[in-house]
């Protein structure tokens, strides 16, 4: 399957599609690949394409949320289904930020499931007073992705970060810390000659996230996370999510999101990289 980025905007807000994960990508080193995708996505989609709406960020202590959905159904000579649903919520004050995310992705082709990922995560950032330029964070997350060989994965992370940019409606943060994760696999994975069906691991967290306004109606949000293992030296996970939005009304936006997941230890018969492009509609609740 070849993934092609749309070059034109949808002609009607009711039109939305969701592309299934691509598992046939030739993989460069994880950091270089994600950095290149991040730069290309920011430059091309951020300046020229409609994309995923952003949850409103106001430092007033109120919870705000954003729901995004995309669906594609094909029948006849080609039978396929692709569904993506996400809920993003955030609560921001002058000195803290608490966010939560839930996401469900399902794809099938010719009756075979090719994507089945469910994710829930929550992160709290608390600024150090009185400077408010640095912060401490704690994050908890749970994931299941059976087609990618992850039966379940639960992780807890904590560390320190810094605000590179913070102004009304925009931010750019970087952070680093340690993470403990417990995961089980659908198929055993080879770790230095030993096949395991589960692993409890300690690693590092190196991440950056930005929410930027490109124009009065267009915003960009992107996040890059590197998860090198301290226990298994050759195990590194890379996660990249890029989202751009163009508003069509006060609450509704056209959406496009790019998601990349890479591991240096794929299961036998599995590709090291999953790449997903999803377009749809987003509805904001303030």
Structure description:
It is a single chain. The radius of gyration is 19 Å and the shape is flat. It has one helix at about 30-50, and strands at about 65-75, 80-90, 95-110, 110-125, 135-145, 150-165, 170-190, 195-215, 220-230, 235-245, 250-265, 275-285. It has one domain (about 30-285): monomeric porin ompg (Porin). A hairpin with a 3-residue loop joins strand 2 (about 80-90) and strand 3 (about 95-110). Residues about 1-30 and about 35-55 have low confidence and may be disordered. It is built from one helix and twelve strands. The protein has a twelve-stranded antiparallel barrel. With about 290 residues, it is mainly beta.
Keywords:
single chain, 286 residues, mainly beta, Porin, twelve-stranded antiparallel beta barrel, 1 helix, 12 strands, flat, disordered N terminus
Short structural summary:
The protein is mostly beta strands and 286 residues long. It is built from one helix and twelve strands, in the order αββββββββββββ.
Topology:
Elements: H1 30-48, E1 63-74, E2 80-92, E3 96-109, E4 112-127, E5 134-145, E6 150-167, E7 170-191, E8 194-215, E9 218-228, E10 236-247, E11 252-263, E12 273-285
Antiparallel strand pairs: 1-2, 1-12, 2-3, 3-4, 4-5, 5-6, 6-7, 7-8, 8-9, 9-10, 10-11, 11-12
């Amino acid at each position: 399957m070849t993934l092609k980025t749309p070059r034109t905007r949808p002609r009607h807000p009711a039109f939305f599609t969701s592309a299934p994960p691509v598992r046939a990508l030739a993989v460069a080193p994880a950091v270089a690949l994600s950095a290149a995708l991040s730069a290309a996505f920011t430059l091309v989609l951020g300046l020229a394409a409609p994309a995923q709406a952003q949850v409103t960020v106001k430092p007033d202590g109120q919870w705000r949320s954003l729901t995004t959905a995309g669906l594609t159904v094909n029948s006849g000579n080609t039978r396929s289904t692709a569904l993506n649903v996400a809920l993003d919520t955030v609560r921001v004050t002058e000195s803290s930020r608490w966010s939560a995310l839930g996401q469900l992705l399902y794809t099938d082709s010719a009756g075979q499931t090719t994507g089945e990922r469910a994710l829930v995560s929550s992160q709290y950032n608390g600024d150090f007073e009185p400077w408010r330029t640095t912060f401490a964070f704690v994050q908890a997350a749970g994931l299941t992705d059976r087609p990618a060989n992850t039966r379940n994965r639960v992780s807890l992370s904590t560390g320190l970060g810094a605000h590179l940019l913070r102004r009304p409606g925009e931010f750019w943060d970087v952070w680093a810390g340690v993470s403990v994760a417990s995961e089980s696999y659908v198929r055993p994975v080879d770790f230095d000659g030993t096949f395991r069906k589960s692993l409890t691991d300690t690693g590092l967290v190196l991440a950056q996230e930005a929410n930027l306004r490109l124009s009065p109606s267009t915003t960009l949000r992107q996040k890059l996370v590197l998860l090198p293992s301290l226990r298994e030296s050759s195990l590194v996970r890379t996660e990249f999510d890029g989202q751009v939005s163009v508003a069509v009304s006060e609450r509704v936006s056209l959406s496009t999101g790019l998601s990349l997941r890479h591991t240096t230890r794929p299961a036998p018969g599995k590709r090291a990289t999953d790449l997903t492009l999803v377009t749809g509609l987003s509805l904001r609740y303030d």
